[in-house]
Amino acid sequence: MTGHSETFRIFHRAILDRKQITCTYKRAFREICPHILGHTKKAEMALVYQFGGQSTTRLPRRGEWRCLLLSEVENAQIRDGHWHSGRDHTTTQRCVDEVYIDVNTNVPNQPGRSAR
Hints:
Blueprint: H1 6-17, E1 20-25, E2 28-40, E3 43-53, E4 64-69, E5 73-79, E6 98-102, H2 111-114
Antiparallel strand pairs: 1-2, 1-5, 2-3, 2-6, 3-4
């Protein structure tokens, strides 16, 4: 895990333990469950399911998928709580090009799984 930001390490731990994260992103308090963590064009990125908190756009009652640039995440903290995930997620994610870890353990070749 050397070379990764503290925020990346927090998201990594949350995925391994299936924990929620609270944080601030674009000045809005967010309640999220991270699903995929990695890089896009060398930037640390996370595909998350936001189920609560605030948003710069309208957040549907059941939540919504969000792509977060981790350098813009502030005050990330892990907490216990029910795991949230989107239901009808039928499109291929385009948030993370190089997957480090996916909450789905059936996805092969996850370097973040061996970094425990």
